[in-house]
Write a structure and sequence with these properties.
355 residues; mainly beta; Porin; 16-stranded antiparallel beta barrel; 52% strand; globular
């Protein structure tokens, strides 16, 4: 194994030296802040980020660095603040803990393009699974879906990508045994396999079939697609199923989200996200309905753009299938008097800046 690693290292060194062509370092970034109010006067909707009730709170500031030298490229992304640290990066003991503000590298990876069609990369990657991302500039809606919250955020490992044509490519890779960890458990190591088939059959339409499967992480099957139907109207889709364990002990979730967005002007647009999310009978999700229950969520979001700023007012309504305790878990939500209710309603205003 050591001989193989040394041979690959030598190959990369020779290839990089032969193709050295320095390009400027690219620096970009973003920052966000928000205010949210839940009619239940508590944070009822347990999805990622925007978790503070009745408070002007911080999201994150992120800085991304990119550079290419010949056929070799590097991507590094640092994040600071609750959204970019304790809420999306696990600490050294593999736990999300905002109070400790853990490891804050969102992306750190290197890629080498052997040919115009074939490349390989290694490091800590933002996951290829799902429609939404951690960085607020990458999403139309400010609040996130249950699918996003319960899916992977990052994957550390090695991957190879081959483009069969401008319209079809395939990525395969080996990743650490668990999602979101930059340091594997040595008992399992790089034991999760992943793949993505990307197709762009017609102009404006992109679709991605994704899979991640491992003994520890379980298996997630994911379909993501987007279609720019007109110059102003865009349709997005995300459907996923995750399962871990086997037989009577199987846990996981299944769900789908539909995104409809229209830009009425260059500075104003409206988007609607509808989501169905169901927890399997033995539970196992980090956030969402109780075991064997489901939730239907509708989110209306506006985007007002002014230079690098985007103002994002949003209204969200979640409806649970259950209004009682299930298996010792409070399945749905509570109102301002503490009474269990099937519905949760929240309004928020976020400001995001991109540079």
């Amino acid at each position: 194994m050591k001989k193989i690693v040394l041979s690959l290292t030598a190959l990369f060194a020779v290839a990089i030296g032969a193709n050295a062509q320095d390009t400027p370092l690219s620096i970009s970034g973003y920052a966000d802040t928000y205010y949210k109010f839940d009619l239940g006067e508590k944070s009822n909707i347990a999805t990622s980020f925007a978790s503070d009730q009745n408070s002007l709170s911080l999201g994150m500031i992120g800085v991304a660095l990119k550079k290419t030298t010949g056929k070799a490229s590097f991507v590094g992304e640092l994040s600071f603040g609750p959204r970019g640290q304790g809420q999306s990066i696990v600490n050294i003991d593999n736990k999300f803990d905002e109070s400790r503000h853990g490891f804050n590298i969102q992306n750190l990876n290197m890629t080498y393009a052997f040919t115009d069609k074939f490349s390989m990369g290694a490091g800590f990657f933002g996951t290829f699974v799902g429609y939404e991302v951690i960085a607020p500039v990458g999403n139309y809606n400010y609040s996130t879906s249950y699918l996003f919250t319960n899916g992977p955020f990052q994957n550390a490992g090695v991957k190879a990508t081959y483009a069969f044509s401008p319209k079809v490519s395939l990525m395969v890779g080996g990743f650490n045994e668990s999602w979101n960890v930059y340091k594997a458990n040595s008992n399992f190591g790089i034991s999760t396999l992943g793949a993505q088939l990307a197709v762009t059959p017609i102009e404006g339409l992109s679709a991605y079939a994704n899979v991640l499967s491992g003994y520890v992480s379980g298996t997630i099957l994911d379909l993501t697609a987007s279609y720019q139907a007109t110059k102003t109207f865009k349709i997005g889709l995300n459907a996923a199923d995750w399962s871990a364990g086997m037989g009577a002990k199987e846990t996981g979730y299944t769900g789908a989200a539909l995104y409809l967005q229209n830009a009425f002007t260059e500075k104003f647009g409206l988007g609607v996200r509808g989501e169905y999310f169901e927890t399997k009978k033995n539970g196992g999700v980090a956030y969402g309905p109780g075991a064997g229950q489901n939730v239907i969520a509708a989110t209306l979001t506006a985007n007002f753009k002014a230079g690098g700023l985007t103002f994002i007012p949003e209204f969200r309504l979640d409806n649970s299938s259950n209004d009682d305790y299930q298996n010792g878990v409070l399945a749905p939500f509570t109102d301002r008097k503490g009474v269990i209710t099937r519905q949760a309603t929240q309004a928020s205003l976020a400001v995001v800046y991109a540079f």
